[in-house]
Design brief:
This protein is mainly alpha-helical and 291 residues long. The chain is 67% helix and 1% strand. Strand 1 and strand 2 form a beta hairpin.
Length: 291
């Protein structure tokens, strides 16, 4: 752990700081400017997500992407990888992703990309992200992104910092799923059952065959975690299971935010929340607003 992190932090406070800026990061997956950059490289639009997010790991085989992304159908990944590395190098995808998000953020936020609030938010988020970089053990996708050079512009520093904090959290979440014996398919079915993301989108983007999806639903129904009465939904037991998983994820993800302290976390949330909402409204209009 970073020597600069000398105190613990309330995991809920850390999660709120992270959640406020999550749309600011995840907008990159739906950025039309980024998609244009990938197409200029010759990437299949349906495969560019895997290329851009996996690129910091280098030209890895499909099995590494299946492992680190966790909840996508392996056959979908194998159609994308290694074909994406034949179209362009991982370094090209890393640059295309950054420049595409740069264009999106400049379009959405205008002059605010270099304003005092942006600079302060970037400073705080980078402090947390650099603390995370001192604890990469067991977090392979995070570690790959953390090895990338930092951009210079404040709005991109903030985006890169939030990307690192997101992948740090994601790797920890996967570790908990593995420890609990929960497959990637079952995890995405449970996610769909929360209603926080459209079922149609999750099924299409993860591309699991209907028979495998239905079998996973039946397994979870037999466990008493989901119900299909009136549509896929969590039971009370399922909601409790999800809440326990998210609380454990919060605990595994909180340490970097200790570098900010309580007041720093609150300040980051206050500064990041309007940015996350504005970027989310443009690039993720279906996302549930951050509270």
């Amino acid at each position: 752990m970073s020597s600069s992190v000398t105190q613990e932090i309330d995991p809920v406070l850390a999660r709120k700081a992270w959640a406020a800026l999550e749309p600011y990061h995840s907008g990159v997956y739906f950025s039309p400017e980024a998609q244009q950059k990938y197409q200029e490289l010759g990437a299949d639009p349906q495969h560019s997500y895997f290329a851009a997010r996996a690129a910091p790991m280098g030209p890895v085989p499909a099995e590494v992407v299946v492992s680190t992304f966790y909840n996508f159908c392996p056959d979908l990944v194998r159609r994308a990888v290694p074909a994406v590395w034949e179209a362009a190098s991982p370094q090209d995808y890393v640059q295309a992703r950054l420049s595409g998000m740069d264009a999106s953020l400049r379009r959405i936020l205008g002059d605010r990309v270099d304003g005092p609030e942006m600079r302060r938010a970037a400073e705080l988020a980078r402090t947390a992200a650099e603390a995370a970089a001192d604890m990469p053990e067991g977090r392979p996708l995070f570690a790959a992104h953390a090895a990338l050079p930092w951009p210079e512009e404040p709005h991109l520093v903030l985006w890169h910092a939030q990307t690192l904090l997101r992948e740090f959290r994601g790797d920890g979440h996967i570790a908990l799923l593995v420890a609990g014996g929960r497959s990637g398919l079952e995890a995405v079915v449970l996610h769909a059952a929360t209603g926080s993301v459209m079922l149609k989108f999750l099924r299409a983007s993860r591309a699991w065959p209907d028979a495998e999806w239905d079998a996973a639903v039946e397994r979870l129904r037999a466990e008493g975690l989901v119900s299909e009465d009136g549509g896929l939904a969590l039971t009370d037991k399922g909601a409790e299971h999800r809440a326990e998983l998210e609380a454990a994820t919060d605990r595994l993800s909180a340490a970097p935010y200790a570098a900010l302290g309580e007041e720093g976390c609150k300040e980051l949330r206050t500064l990041g929340k309007p940015l996350g909402k504005e970027v989310g409204a443009d690039l993720l209009p279906w996302m549930r607003p951050v509270k």
